[in-house]
Amino acid sequence: MRSLIAAELLKLRTTRMLAVCVGVVVLFAAALPIFSGAAAGHRGEPALAASSLADFLHAPAQLTGAAVLLIGLLAAAGEFHHRTIFSARLEEPRTTRLLAAKLITLAAVGVVVGFAMDVVAAVTGAIVLARHHVAIEPLAHGVPRLAVVLPAVIALQGILGVAIGALLRNTAAAVGATLVWAFIIEGIMPIVTNQPHLTNWLPSGAIREVTSSHTPAGQLVPVAAAAVLLAYAAVLVTATVMLDRSREI
Amino acid sequence: MARIEFHNLSKRYGPVSAVDGLTFSPTPGRITGFVGANGAGKSTTIRMLLGLTRPSSGAATIDGRPYAELRDPLRSIGAMVDPNVFHPRRTGRDALRVIARAAEIPAPRVDHVLAAVGLTNAARRRTGGYSTGMRQRLALAAALLGDPDTLVLDEPANGLDPEGVHWLRGLIKSLAVEGRTVFVSSHLLAELAQTIDDVVIIAHGRLITHAPVADLIARANGPSLEQVYLELTQSLTDSRIKETS
Question: Do B170 and B180 touch, CB atoms closer than 8 A?
């Protein structure tokens, strides 16, 4: 398994996809605190406070999660698009091991990219706070919790990306289906079912709840939201494994 | 040396029978040509051997086991199924490094096989810029990566220019001289006749014959493998036409 994971990492390193996504994430994580600092206190924007550090960490998480999800989608579906699945299956004919290696790799990539985002956002945020003479309190306002939870959620998004890509085996279909689900289905379902709280049980809502620092009535507590996300990942991975038993390449 | 065996192997796609009860075993240590017209079932047979396609019935085994159960597949059997199996943005060298890393093959072997197929100078170019012939060579390099004693090559001469075909013939012969088993499919009979020791002829998914080339030509009293092939397959084609009419 270690050699398969090493090969998956090498696959990511030898194309530009990972480097471009990480570059965008780092740039975004660094730019957001600077823009927030410049806008703070103007045109109705609240002034910077010690709690702003948590906001700086939280702000790029959505984009980072989406980037890692995309890497997962393209890494899995791209094997079929570029037909590299043939050599992958000759190296390791057991499809479950191949999928497991990809899932572990993308989870690890998610953790690393998440921590990189944490560090960049925290350092830039601390500099911005210092320039505005605001106290830097890295151990308060939920900052330590966010620093751990955000990479974990981003890793889960990597797993979801791989599962969707491996399930659909087509990059355009995988990206399209994910966009339709996130921007249309998740918006329509609570309205159609007349259950506004359903949003919290859907993947995007659960991601939001896992990272939220407070839980109003009717919303999921972070642990429950994490369990919902894990359940989605488990269902998708199981479906992929089951289908792979009967599908050919 | 790995022994390839096909036992009553069949593959159906709905009402179409792509492979129909194939039973044969290429002789270890020899070059066996796997010959048939386009659509005869050669690629499907090879894909079933490599676990890329599931048989409808029967089995294709390597040393008595399906490919999926081989402990170290790339070191047992080197396969070339399609030249277009490389990520276009990855360099030829990186494409092989990925395979080597997954199969725990030492990294220096990558440069060795790249040299063996004459791609050293193009090793750091992206495969998206490779010609068909270069991709064929890279696919051959991938098959050789694990230094297997058995090679399965599906239409390796497709897309090669005359110089490339000449090179491929030399390569296959040199691999056989080293004592390897080579099982090579092709529909280019004249080309294959100069390289192979034995021939397996199939038509419409069925085995027509499996024999040493020299014996076949002598027995059929034909002037060439091409003539023998046409005579052997014509009767089956005629009976098929009668069946459908």
Answer: no
Question: For residues B156 and B81, what is the distance between their CA atoms, to the nearest angstrom?
Answer: 8
Q: Which residue in the set B54, B74, B84 is minimally distant from A248, CB to CB?
A: B54
Q: Which of A101-110, B141-150, B158-167 has the lowest mean pLDDT?
A: B158-167
Domain ranges of chain B: 4-244
> In chain A, what residues touch B103 (CB-CB under 8 Å)?
3, 91
Sequence-separated (6 or more) residues with CB below 8 Å from residue B238: none
Distance CA B72, CA A205 (A): 45
Express each pLDDT in A159-186 by its tens digit: 999 999 999 999 999 999 989 888 888 8
Span A15-22, average pLDDT: 88
Q: Could you tell me if A229 and A208 are in contact, meaning their C-beta atoms sit under 8 angstroms apart?
A: no
User: What is the C-alpha separation between B91 and B130, in angstroms, rounded?
Assistant: 10
Are B74 and A90 in contact (CB < 8 Å)? yes
Quick check: A225 pLDDT over 90? no
- Host domain of residue A9: 2-246
Strands B77-80 and B150-154: parallel
Q: Which amino acid is at B121?
A: N
Confidence of residue B157 (pLDDT cuts 50, 70, 90): confident
Closest Cα in chain B to A14:
B90
Cα separation of A10 and B237, whole Å? 50
> Has domain B4-244 been given CATH number 3.40.50.300?
yes
Distance (Å, whole) CA A220 – CA A21: 30
Domain count within chain A: 1
Contact A7 B99 (CB under 8 A): yes
pLDDT tens by residue, B202-213: 888 888 888 888
Least confident of A38-52, B58-72, B130-144: A38-52
* pLDDT at residue A215, rounded to an integer: 54
Cβ–Cβ contact A10 with B under 8 A:
yes
Judged by a CB distance cut-off of 8 A, whether residue A197 touches chain B is: no
Place of tokens 């960049």: A120
- Could you say which of A3, A82, A90 has the minimum Cβ distance to residue B73? A90
Kindly provide the b/e burial profile for residues A2-24, where b requires at least 16 CB atoms within 10 angstroms of the residue's own CB.
ebbbbbbbbbbebbebbeebbee
